[in-house]
Amino acid sequence: MLLVLLLIAVAPDWVPARWQSSDPKSLELVSRTPINCLLLEQPNWSADFAKAAAARGIVTLGIVHPGADAIELARRPASIGMTGVVLEGDFDPKVRAALADSRILTIELPTRARMRFDDATALVVGSDQGLWPGIQIEENGAVKSAPSGAPWIDTNTGFLRFVRAYTGKSVWIANVPPAKMVLPVNRYLQAIGDATIAGAHWVVALDEDFNRRLLAHEPHALADWMRIGTTLSYYESHKEWKSMTPHGQLAVVEDVSSGALLSGGILDMIAVKHAPVQPVPNPKLSDAEMKNAKMAVDVDPSALTPPQRDVLKKFTRAGGTLLSAPPGWTFPMPKTGEITIGKDDFKKLDEIWKEVNGMMGRTNLGARLFNVSSMLSNLVGTPDGKRLALHLVNYTDFPVESITAHVLGTYTHARMYAPGAEPKDLPVYKVEEGTGVDIDKVDVLATVVFE
Questions:
Q1: What's the rounded Cα separation, in Å, for the pair 312 and 443?
Q2: Crossing angle of helices 185-196/157-166, nearest 10°?
Q3: Mean pLDDT, rounded, of the chain
Q4: Fewer CB within 10 Å, N side or C side of the chain?
Q5: 249-270 per-position pLDDT tens digit
Q6: What pLDDT score was predicted for residue 8?
Q7: How far is CA 267 from CA 154, 274, 349, 395, in A?
Q8: What is the spatial distance between Cα 310 and Cα 287, in angstroms, rounded to a whole number?
């Protein structure tokens, strides 16, 4: 029991990855990275591997998929010395209950539609469903455009930011690379950044070709693996960024019932415009949540309770600007297997986006960025606003140069961080809205800290 309690205490520090080997010698590759939690499919469950991993301080979790023998199968990892199990997919509640009675350490990664935010005992809140991050290319080779006019970026950030706002627990997204594709290493770095700038963990997963070459210790694969490790180390060495909260003056009030679990919604559209935004799940709506907002979007007014409506009334009476979606305008709950908005809902999104974009105008709601059409950003800060972190992810295959950022407030120092690079001080200058900096180049990932 003491061991279980200890594991629960350190679970937020787990850096997870899927691992496709049962050879204890392969753990040497893991030890070169911050990865300390391995998810293994049944063919790779091994007592020798679990023992060797434990000796290195690495957690091992057996992946179990839905099936008639799920309960029996889920009890096997613990019997051979593994740390616990991951229930990947949607399970009968009886399976969860049986494992709880057995006190087997269990993490659930269901479909988005079956995520449970009310489980106080959960170590992790997450899903195995996600988009593979990147700029979406149409069949003719052209770049698809979003309603905002910017390139359409497949991203999980809107979904993850909502989940992070809903729960204080560690958040995992366990999507895997597209099948039968060999991906360049930058695509893995983008996947890490896409999750991490939203305060979540992507469960690292390699394509079959990469995994084969890595286990064979091919030099190019080892070099790419080290870049992945360097990127994970970069974010793990700045854990204070994860404790920061969304810093901006725009709030989006939405819930599971109004499309918050679908990618490509309002949060993602606003993110493409690089306007800092604070997701506010309906159950979390309060005066305290809205105290820093000057503008708000209510995605589904009909879903609010009378006390929640009173909060928004107080917000507008205090001078806040509120945009409410038209009556009957809403996204459906995601169905099993569904993670993006449908074509009809996309048309709805296009309509409301015009209203949202018009409300925001050219106002600086926390930060304004220039020359970043192929990037996403997230601005977070300490509660007192004295320290900000501006996260940047470049979704192209080439560096982006000559970036400018304007943040609200007066800051005297700015420093840029990037994986594998020495921190670089950036000259700050006054702008009408506050403080500006110029960034020469971003390869894949970067963070600018203002103080």
A1: 41
A2: 30
A3: 90
A4: N
A5: 999 999 998 889 989 888 888 8
A6: 62
A7: 13, 11, 11, 18
A8: 9
Residue type at position 408: L
Q: How many whole angstroms separate alpha carbon 211 and alpha carbon 41?
A: 14
Tokens 């057996």 label which residue? 62
**pLDDT, tens digit, for every residue of 17-32?**
999 999 999 999 999 9
Could you tell me the CA-to-CA distances from 309 to 122, 148, 260, 302 in Å, in that order?
30, 29, 19, 10
Which range has the top average pLDDT, 94-103, 213-222, 334-343? 213-222
Query: What is the rounded distance in angstroms from the CA atom of residue 43 to the CA atom of residue 64?
Result: 11
How far, CA to CA in Å, does 402 sit from each of 413, 437, 441?
A: 19, 10, 6
Rounded to the nearest angstrom, the gap between the alpha carbon of residue 225 and the centroid of all alpha carbons in its chain is: 21
Dihedrals phi, psi of 181, to nearest 5 degrees: -125, 145
Residues 6 or more apart whose CB falls under 8 angstroms from that of 2 comprise: none
Lowest-pLDDT range of 76-90, 98-112, 159-173? 98-112
Name the residue with tokens 């928004």.
312
CB 266 within 8 A of CB 297: yes
Angle at 256 between CA 163 and CA 332, to 5 degrees: 135
Is the pLDDT score of 193 beyond 90? Answer: yes
pLDDT at 1 over 50: no
